[in-house]
Amino acid sequence: MRLSLLSGLPCFAPVVRFPVERNSAFGGKRPPSNGNTAPNSNRQPPCKAAFTLLELLLALGILALVSGGIFAMMSATMQVTSETETRQERARKTEALGEFLRKGFANLPLKCRISLRGSTQRGGNLQELLIENAPNAFAWGKRHGHFGPVSLTPVPRSDGLLDLRVIKINPKPTTVAEAAEWIRLAGNFRLVEWSVMDPSGQWLDNWTGEQLPRLVRMRWQLQGDDSITERVFDIPASRLKFVEKKKPDEKT
Which pLDDT value is given to residue 187? Predict the structure, then answer.
């Protein structure tokens, strides 16, 4: 409290107290004043952490390299998988074809005849394996009762490849449609060759059909294969026929 100079009455003046900041550099005391008690308006706000342009470009480059490597690995894996599936499907078809032919030759009767001859179709020199006197030979489906000749022959296609067909030849057709009935065993052949083994053990490309050959050999090459596949089929009836010829005369 102090006295006013004008009226002599006591006058109360407000007292302004400034907060004291505890600064460790001054031992918890008020720092020395430079005469300016106003707050510093030029103080910069604190900066936040951020990525520079160089860091972003480097991260994008690494991401592109990793993505390209993953894409290349996935493409290679898909290609290998596709090639493996193609080979497995080709192997299954080859095995099914071989099993069908093996059963057909194994079930041929004693009195059947086999002849191998050349067949010219669409300018190509191909081989036709003709089987006669073999009812229901190489039959398919539920239809039986065929007593005519059966032909195993490759047929050219318009794209230059071959289809292997089983053709049932009707000796007495009433219509053109009944002249021959066929089924496609397999396709996409580049090469199909037939040969037979005579009783002396020689492979021949032509066979007259006077007697049954001991073995029948089929050699083929599919589209996309670099090697030639070979299958040999046994004819049990040929050994029975040869034994029958060597039997001595039972008449006394």
Answer: 87
